């Protein structure tokens, strides 16, 4: 076998130009969440104080998306450069832009048509339109929009903030939005999408949101009624905002060096007894369970968890997270994809991270992991002293189960208890089945407990998490019963009678308040 080539061979190279069709692939890695976050980067770079993410909705379809900001806006030259692929030659210090393709790639990843309307003080309003067809043909065509039309769009766009200047990006003919023609499906898709966006934007822009640099809002505009709903405000979800460190001596700052460039990162241990907090898992899509590197560039989170080919996922590191800021000097060694959603460490940088040492203890990252592992073991040992609840199986969100484990502790000597929905007598809101390790919620009261009657969604796992948790805790001692004695049965009967009265009272209160609700057909 010949030796591997480890140095460039002699002789001139051959220029291999990229295939123009590569343009069509740019942005294909975007999700709705990452695309919107990328578009908001442009708004933050334009010094917007407010950004509104607006879904364009009809009763049975979601027809588009708008990103509206009150930033500086763009003049003729700036909007033309923004519409070019790779059109931005340089960025101001602190700018989130990097490749010069975010506006187009993000928009075109979500819809087949996009329009940009912009107003900048002292300049004529500008607008541009582009279709996916020209992008797919590897020959992007941008069509100007009349200034008068831009003025009309701004005037017809209601917001709770001033829009004398700013930019509006509109994406239509959506590629992945729900269009089933079923109103319940549309409502469900919107609920899930808004929830995911709030979490993602609150995490990946948490520094800008948390410091008040920008406020991000999400609403829905009903095109049938020509009216916007009340906007919800995105809250900052800081992955390092925990009450106290989970381990003595943490966080620890480490310093490393690569090619004469010093860099630092902070090693944190999230407190295990606070893993139920909403900002513990800031990005469910990473699959990292929260552990790993949290990588920032210019105060914008790029990666939430994951070990970047340095380490593997491990329960011993479940609460360990490393905070790394990528400076301009480090950008050649910490590379991101055009969607800003995939980070790669070069081989030399991985070695530099492994060689970095704690400023206070001179330990390497691997040695700090061992310290965290030992402290986690001690913490688990202490928790076992007070096991007072049997573990639930199904029916509750993972975070609730973890909170039960952290704050009460599980009696793992007993098998878990299943939580299910089944048809029971109307006399019972729920039922504990002694000897079968089963908690049954009555589908007869499904709408009273979940408020899902109007959606047509059937009873299923992890619905009504608050009430399910309360019922579980109420019966924490009864769930391990092997048999049902007469005294216990009488007590259960009394509880069911009280709960039925409470349900009747709830229905009367809803009627007085004029709250819409779906009546069960057999009530």
UniProtKB/TrEMBL annotation:
What Gene3D superfamilies does its record include?
Histidine kinase-like ATPase, C-terminal domain
Name the source's superkingdom: Bacteria
Q: Which InterPro entries match?
A: HATPase_C_sf, MORC_ATPase
GO MF, any single term: ATP hydrolysis activity
- Record's signal peptide: none
Q: Which SUPFAM superfamilies match?
A: ATPase domain of HSP90 chaperone/DNA topoisomerase II/histidine kinase
Pfam families this protein is in? HATPase_c_3
Annotated PANTHER family: OS06G0622000 PROTEIN, ZINC FINGER CW-TYPE COILED-COIL DOMAIN PROTEIN 3
Protein name according to UniProt? ATP-binding protein
């Amino acid at each position: 076998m010949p030796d591997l080539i480890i140095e460039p061979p002699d002789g001139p190279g051959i220029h291999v130009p990229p295939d123009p069709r590569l343009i069509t692939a740019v942005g294909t890695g975007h999700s709705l969440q990452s695309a919107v976050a990328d578009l908001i980067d442009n708004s933050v770079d334009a010094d917007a104080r407010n950004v509104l993410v607006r879904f364009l909705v009809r009763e049975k379809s979601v027809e588009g998306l708008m990103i509206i900001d009150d930033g500086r806006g763009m003049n003729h030259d700036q909007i033309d450069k923004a519409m070019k692929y790779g059109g931005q030659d340089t960025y101001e210090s602190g700018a989130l832009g990097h490749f010069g393709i975010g506006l187009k790639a993000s928009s075109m990843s979500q819809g087949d048509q996009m329009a940009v309307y912009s107003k900048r003080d002292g300049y004529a309003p500008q607008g541009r339109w582009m279709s996916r067809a020209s992008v797919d043909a590897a020959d992007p065509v941008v069509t100007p929009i009349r200034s008068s039309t831009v003025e009309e769009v701004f005037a017809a766009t209601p917001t709770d903030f001033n829009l004398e200047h700013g930019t509006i990006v509109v994406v239509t003919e959506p590629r992945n939005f729900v269009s089933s023609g079923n109103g319940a499906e549309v409502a469900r898709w919107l609920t899930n999408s808004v929830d995911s966006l709030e979490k993602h934007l609150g995490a990946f822009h948490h520094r800008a949101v948390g410091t008040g640099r920008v406020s991000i809002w999400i609403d829905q505009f009903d095109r049938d009624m020509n009216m916007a709903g009340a906007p919800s405000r995105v809250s900052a979800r800081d992955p390092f905002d925990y009450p106290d460190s989970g381990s003595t001596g943490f966080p620890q700052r480490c310093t490393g060096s690569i090619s004469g460039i010093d860099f630092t990162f902070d090693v944190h241990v999230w407190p295990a007894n606070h893993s139920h907090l909403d900002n513990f898992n800031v990005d469910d899509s990473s699959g990292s369970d929260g552990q790993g590197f949290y990588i920032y560039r210019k105060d914008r989170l790029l990666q939430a968890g994951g070990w970047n080919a340095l380490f593997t996922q491990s329960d011993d590191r479940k609460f360990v997270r490393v905070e790394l800021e990528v400076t301009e000097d480090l950008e050649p060694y910490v590379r991101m994809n055009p969607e800003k959603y995939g980070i790669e460490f070069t081989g030399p940088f991985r070695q530099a991270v492994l060689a970095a040492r704690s400023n206070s203890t001179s330990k390497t990252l691997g040695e700090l992991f061992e310290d965290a592992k030992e402290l986690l073991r001690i913490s688990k040992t202490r928790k076992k002293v007070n096991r007072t609840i049997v573990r639930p199986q199904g029916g509750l969100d993972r975070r609730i189960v973890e909170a039960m484990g952290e704050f009460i502790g599980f009696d793992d000597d007993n098998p878990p208890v299943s939580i299910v929905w089944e048809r029971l007598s109307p006399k019972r809101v729920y039922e504990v089945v002694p000897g079968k390790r089963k908690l049954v919620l009555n589908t007869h009261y499904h709408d009273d407990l979940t408020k899902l009657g109007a959606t047509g969604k059937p009873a299923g796992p992890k619905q009504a998490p608050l009430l399910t948790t309360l019922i579980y805790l109420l019966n924490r001692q009864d769930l391990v019963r092997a048999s049902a004695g007469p005294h216990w049965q009488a007590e259960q009967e009394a509880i069911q009678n009280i709960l039925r009265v409470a349900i009747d009272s709830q229905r009367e209160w809803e009627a007085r308040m004029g709250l819409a609700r779906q009546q069960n057909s057999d009530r």
